[in-house]
Amino acid sequence: MKNLVLVGFMGSGKTAAGKIAAKRLGMAFVDMDTIIEVRAGQTIAQIFKTKGEPFFREQERTLAQELAGKSGQVVATGGGIVLNAENLREFEGSAVVICCWVNASVAYERTKHTKHRPLLEGEADRRTRIEALLSEREPLYKAIALQIDTSAMGVEQQANEIVRIYKQQCGG
Ligand code: S3P
Model-level pTM? Predict the structure, then answer.
């Protein structure tokens, strides 16, 4: 079974819907941020703080290469996976890659009470920060062929869509 890779902005439901989709498909679920945290023995927030974002991006890059060589897994990526085109190129060569789109106001609503995302922490105006980051990345997300607009979806519906698209792509 080909890997199923979920890409999208913070708050796009990659992890929540990905877990449900993996269960329905009988596939293993992996979350890239969690793997990076376990390997580093630090949270993503601590990694950003003590080692910096470039170090985190290197870990993300190495892990993407590793996972692109595997199969049978549902992979929830971090929102910044699109920043390095190589990551997507490799995933698209071996997996079904689905972009979970979310608009800025819904991304804000879904993330406003969270404290574990260093790119949003310490921002006096989180909403404006999200709008800026998302519009910067929008062309990268929108370049992915398979899209789900999750903005008006609950997590169950999103998982159903993910499963439907994956099966369709795999000819099932
Ligand atoms: C990031 C998103 C986060 C995490 C890190 C950077 C980003 O993952 O990888 O904080 O650059 O958008 P989630 O999308 O799971 O929040």
Answer: 0.98
